[in-house]
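Morning, I've got a small favour to ask if you have a moment. The fold is given in discrete form, as structure tokens running alongside the sequence. I'd be grateful if you could look everything over and explain what you see. No rush at all, and the record is pasted right below.
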Amino acid sequence: MRLLTDTWLLFKNYMMSTLRQPVWILISLFTPICYLLLFAPLLDKMIVPSGPNTNALTSFTPGVVVMLGMFGSLFVGFSIISDLRAGIVERLRVTPVSRLAPLLGRALRDACLLLVQCLLLVTLAFILGLKADFWGVVLSLVLVIPMGIALASLSYAVGLMLKSEDAFAPLLNFFTTPLLLLSGVLLPLSLAPDWLQGAAKISPFYYIVNATRALFLGDFSDNAVWIGFGLVIVLAVLCVYWAANIFRRATA
């Protein structure tokens, strides 16, 4: 009960801090919106619709949603480094707050922001002509949100370990670029050569993107959907568990 109370109090505090500058929520949508407006139209003649009620956006938008979840969550670790420098994490050591509450409060705040951003992005995609199954889109958000929690927890833990933006930024760039390209967020990897398809199967995000695309098509029985949800659950449990241990040591 104490953990839930502390998490809720810190969640409200982090959320209020974020809402004081709501413009950053919209600024973080700039890159995905650019992909929808400037890149997606190029795919109209490249991607063959998989059915009468689909178009290029049906294949492209799920990837952009996953990309938003990936990048929006992986970069939150910069904020914990700022808190370290300001002494906020240090002050938590002398408070009776649960040692897990700072992590869970932050991760839940990030999940709420990600949900709002995904809703805005999908709404724009529908305005631009997206054809997708409504409940499939809803389930896609259910899939992406725990992925965001997992990656945000991972990012906070790495930020606590490195304690420096100079080390954190290049490490992120080193991993995010291959993850982005191997996940197939921009184009379905069915268009790729065999060796690239084989390399992509190493990345869990490849399966998450495939699951999201299947859901947008309304193909709920596709094995990709079950694989995607299974991987997201495992990823969330592992990342939150590892990050929780890092937070315990940092605030002990």
Observations:
- DSSP finds twelve helices and no strands in the chain.
- Residues 2-39+63-181+194-251 form one domain.
